[in-house]
Amino acid sequence: MNAEQNSRRRFLKGASALSLVAMPGVLTAKTLSTSSAPETATPGGQRAQINVRDLGATGDGKTKDTLALQQALDRCNLLGGGEVLVPPGEYLTGALFLRSNTTLHLQEGASLLGSPDINDYPLTQVRWEGRFIKGYGAFINANSAENVTITGKGRILASPAIPGRVRNADGSEIVRPPAGTPHGPTSSNRVARRDIIRNPALMEFTRVRNLLVENIYTQGNDMWSTHPLFCENVTFRNLTIISGADGIDVDSCKHVRIDNCTFETKDDCISLKSGRGMEGNVIGVPCEDVHVSNCTFNDSGFACIGIGSEASGGVRNLLVEHCKFTGARSYAIYIKSRIGRGAFIEDLTFNDLDVSNTRQGFLRFNQTGSGLQDPAPVAGMDGVPHFARFKFTNIRVTDVPVLVQADEIDGDKPLDGLLLKNISGTCAKGMLLANIKNADLSEIHVTGFTGPLLSTYNVTGKGLANAATLEAPKPTPPTPPLQPPYVLGQ
């Protein structure tokens, strides 16, 4: 065999092993890969270096550069991995898909501008509010890939001409049912969920292992900004995230690090999710092992950090430390679920936080009634979420309306383990705790409040002396069995 034939055989062997784009889909925890990351270099030891200008990108902000940018990303992957360089300029483009072993490097002065044409974003299955529905893919995507990096000091900007989180299939606006309207498990509700379409997120990563996004400035519209789903080993570092909705939605992911990021959002800055109702519960992929540090949060729509309410696959092992909460329309931290979600939210640790400018308070737990009921809820006591081991230490608050509201806990499944230690500052109202066991309160040094500092109902543990009596919460009955029985995918 001559050298030319040998080289051609190596190329074909490598190309046959490459993974093409896989749209988001349903999987179980067992399908998440735990294998070692492959080498990113070519057989000859070199990594590809591709400048998008060499493939025809103009960067003039007017000409669509989608084809040139995508060809650069595909070529990099086919050559065994490397770097796609985007030099200064404004690159108008539709949806882009990153492949395995590829670094997208946006130089300072380079901007990716999302196309205003909705037809530039392919329709597929997306997870939104905890369920898979028809929707448009994101502006920046990676699906079923490994070793994906987005870096540089450039910008990724969504088009303001594509607003709206979801809409009806005919293009009309979604009208939510008024508050108090029942949302039972009816077949008509199931059909209605199929008739809505989610608009594009800014960045969406599905089943990606070893993902790094760093140093980028991002600006979304009023759809979620960044959505990792079923991902493992993820790092978001040194990002500026401007969003008309959520900032980062960590959805059924494992081993996630969010460090030194600045958030300006109109919904949760960070939200941890894992599916909703029977669909999320049957898939059963939790959101776990998440570390958030050195971040600054400002939210004008809801909470800075929201955990749930789509948590039917479970949420566990979260550490948030050394962060500043500079504004929230509701609470700085909101841990939420509802009867019918099932699963668990457990082992959450918050340490060394500064909290100010919140409209409703510092901290709230709602185990029983956050969010709309799912069309196919988890029935019976299995549908009552389990809350356990929440720890809050070294917290400094400034003029928060409520220090802690934790009175929306089911009496049959009380919160097991709550530590509140070394909390100082000023608040208008103290702590309301109900249906909690193994509580531990110490070194609570706050001033400015009216009424009792601590009010409790059915709470056991330490540091509860002199608590006022709180009225018993109204019980929420478990959801009845679903008829007909739930079938995954229907």
What are the SSEs and their pairings?
Blueprint lengths: L2 H14 L31 E4 L8 E5 L1 H13 L3 E5 L2 E5 L2 E3 L3 E5 L3 E5 L8 E6 L2 E6 L3 E13 L2 E3 L8 E3 L18 H8 L1 E3 L4 E12 L2 E3 L6 E4 L2 E6 L2 E3 L5 E4 L2 E6 L2 E4 L4 E4 L3 H7 L3 E7 L2 E4 L5 E3 L7 E13 L3 E6 L7 E13 L4 E6 L19 E23 L6 E33 L6 E9 L5 E2 L21
Parallel strand pairs: 1-3, 2-4, 3-6, 4-7, 5-10, 6-10, 7-11, 10-14, 11-15, 14-16, 14-17, 15-18, 16-19, 17-20, 18-21, 19-22, 20-23, 21-24, 22-25, 23-26, 24-26, 25-27, 26-28, 27-29, 28-30, 29-30, 30-31, 31-32, 32-33
Antiparallel strand pairs: 8-9, 12-13
Compose a concise summary of this entry.
This protein has 490 residues and is mainly beta. The chain is built from four helices and 33 strands.
Give structural notes:
The protein has helices at residues 3-16, 66-78, 187-194, 277-283, and strands at 48-51, 60-64, 82-86, 89-93, 96-98, 102-106, 110-114, 123-128, 131-136, 140-152, 155-157, 166-168, 196-198, 203-214, 217-219, 226-229, 232-237, 240-242, 248-251, 254-259, 262-265, 270-273, 287-293, 296-299, 305-307, 315-327, 331-336, 344-356, 361-366, 386-408, 415-447, 454-462, 468-469. The protein is mostly beta strands and 490 residues long. It has a 13-stranded parallel barrel with strand order 14-16-19-22-25-27-29-30-28-26-23-20-17. The protein has a two-stranded antiparallel ribbon with strand order 8-9. The longest helix is centred in the first third of the chain and has 14 residues, at 3-16. It is globular, with a radius of gyration of 24 Å.
